[in-house]
TrEMBL record:
GO BP terms, alphabetized: L-histidine biosynthetic process
PROSITE patterns (UniProt xref): AA_TRANSFER_CLASS_2 (PS00599)
Cofactors named for this entry: pyridoxal 5'-phosphate
Subunit structure as annotated in this protein's UniProt entry: Homodimer.
GO MF assignments: histidinol-phosphate transaminase activity; pyridoxal phosphate binding
Protein origin, superkingdom: Bacteria
Residue span(s) of domain Aminotransferase class I/classII large: 22-342
Keyword Transferase attached: yes
Family, per entry: Belongs to the class-II pyridoxal-phosphate-dependent aminotransferase family.
Classification via InterPro entries: Aminotrans_II_pyridoxalP_BS, Aminotransferase_I/II_large, ArAT, HisP_aminotrans, HistidinolP_aminotransfase, PyrdxlP-dep_Trfase, PyrdxlP-dep_Trfase_major, PyrdxlP-dep_Trfase_small
Protein name per Swiss-Prot or TrEMBL: Histidinol-phosphate aminotransferase
Organism of origin: Antricoccus suffuscus
Length: 345
C-alpha cells in the first residue's frame, strides 16, 4: 500500500508565483535594487555563512523595537511575514477552529488555513475593500483569528483609522486580530493609521510586517510581528524552525532600518508613479480603486483575458485573477510607460 498525504494537503492547489517576463509587474516587487549600504552589509555577512545565524535575531529585534519604541519582548523575527502568520495560527488555533478574512485577499491565506487545519471564512469585499461590519457578523464561537490585510492585496485599498479602531473595539477579546501590513510603507493617506498605533493597549491584536516590499529584500525572506501580548512573540519563537532566518537576511534588514531616509525617497517615487498610473488608467475608462500599496487593481472583469494578451504581446506580466481583474505592480517610469502603451493598444 502506498503512502499518501492527508486529504486536506492533497487537495491543496499549488501557490502560483508571478510569471517571469521582460517586464515583470506580477509580484508586487520593489523595482529598485537594494541600497548600497544594504549590499555592503550583505557582502560582509556573506563572509560569515560558515556559522549558524543567531536564531533569536537579537540585534534585529532590538532595532525593530527601537523603531516602534516598544520592548524587544514584543517583537519576533521570522522567515517572512507569511511564515510568521502561519506560526501564529499554529499556536492559537485548534484543528476545526475558524479564521475570518476578507476575500478576495492574499492568495496564501486559504493555503495556510488548510495547512494548519482551520476553517477559512471568506467575507466578500465591499467596493474592493474589507467589509468590517460583515466580518464582525461572521464571528462565531469557533472563531479564533481574524486577518485584516491593510492595504489589501490585490485591490490596494486600505481601511481608514476610525473604522478599524471601531472594528477592533468590537471584536471579542478571545479572538486574535492579525493586521497584515505588508504594504504599510506605501500608505500616504493621513486618515489611515499605522497598525502599531492601532494595537497599543490591545492584548488580542498584532501587527505583521515584511522587509520584502518597500525594503526590497524579497529574496531573503524576512519579516516580523509586534504585539503587546507577549505570548505572540514567544509562540513565534517556539514554533520557528531553528536558524530559519539567515545571517545575510538579518544583516540586510538591520542595514535597511538604518537607511530610512533613502527608503522614504524610494517610496515617494513609487507612490508618485502609482498616482500617475491610476489617473491615466481611469482616463482610459478602466475602474481602478484608490491604492495605498505598490500596485494598482484594474477591475477589468470579462475584459481581463484581452488585457493579459495585450500585456503579454510586449513582454509584460501582470497578475490576473480569472475574470475578476488584474493586479499590476508599480514599476519604474519606463516600465510604467510601456504598460500604459500596451493598455491603450
Amino acid at each position: 500500500m502506498n503512502t499518501h498525504p492527508i486529504d486536506r494537503i492533497a487537495a491543496l492547489p499549488a501557490y502560483v508565483p508571478g510569471k517571469p517576463a521582460k517586464v515583470k509587474l506580477a509580484s508586487n516587487e520593489n523595482p529598485f535594487p537594494p541600497l548600497p549600504s544594504v549590499i555592503e552589509a550583505i557582502t560582509v555577512a556573506a563572509g560569515e555563512i560558515n556559522r549558524y545565524p543567531d536564531t533569536a535575531s537579537l540585534e534585529l529585534r532590538e532595532q525593530v523595537a527601537r523603531k516602534y519604541d516598544v520592548p524587544p519582548e514584543q517583537v519576533a523575527i521570522g522567515a517572512g511575514s507569511l511564515t510568521i502568520g502561519e506560526q501564529i495560527l499554529q499556536a492559537f488555533t485548534h484543528e476545526g477552529d475558524e479564521i475570518v478574512y476578507g476575500w478576495r485577499s492574499f492568495e496564501a491565506y486559504p493555503l495556510v488555513s488548510a495547512v494548519v487545519g482551520v476553517r477559512a471564512i471568506q467575507v466578500p469585499l465591499r467596493e474592493h475593500m474589507y467589509d468590517l461590519d460583515a466580518m464582525l457578523a461572521a464571528i462565531t464561537d469557533r472563531t479564533r483569528v481574524i486577518i485584516v490585510c491593510n492595504p489589501n492585496n490585490p485591490t490596494g485599498t486600505a481601511v481608514q483609522r476610525d473604522r478599524l479602531v471601531a472594528f477592533l473595539d468590537a471584536v471579542p477579546s478571545e479572538v486574535l486580530v492579525i493586521i497584515d501590513e505588508a504594504y504599510g510603507e506605501y500608505i500616504d493617506d493621513p486618515q489611515i493609521a499605522s497598525g502599531v498605533d492601532l494595537i497599543k493597549g490591545r492584548q488580542n491584536a498584532c501587527l505583521l510586517k515584511t522587509f520584502s516590499k518597500a525594503y526590497g529584500l524579497a529574496a531573503l525572506r524576512i519579516g516580523y510581528v509586534v504585539s503587546e501580548n507577549l505570548d505572540i512573540a514567544a509562540s513565534v519563537g517556539k514554533t520557528a524552525m531553528p536558524f530559519s532566518v539567515s545571517t545575510i537576511a538579518q544583516a540586510a534588514a538591520i542595514a535597511s532600518l538604518h537607511a530610512e531616509g533613502e527608503l522614504r525617497d524610494r517610496v515617494a517615487q513609487t507612490t508618485s508613479e502609482r498616482v500617475r498610473l491610476t489617473t491615466e488608467l481611469r482616463a482610459l475608462g478602466w475602474t481602478v480603486p484608490d491604492s495605498q500599496a505598490n500596485f494598482v487593481w484594474i477591475d477589468s472583469g470579462t475584459d481581463t483575458p484581452e488585457l493579459v494578451r495585450r500585456l503579454g504581446a510586449v513582454g509584460i506580466s501582470g497578475r490576473a485573477f480569472g475574470e475578476e481583474g488584474i493586479r499590476v505592480t508599480v514599476g519604474t517610469p519606463d516600465e510604467n510607460d510601456l504598460f500604459l502603451s500596451a493598455v491603450r493598444g
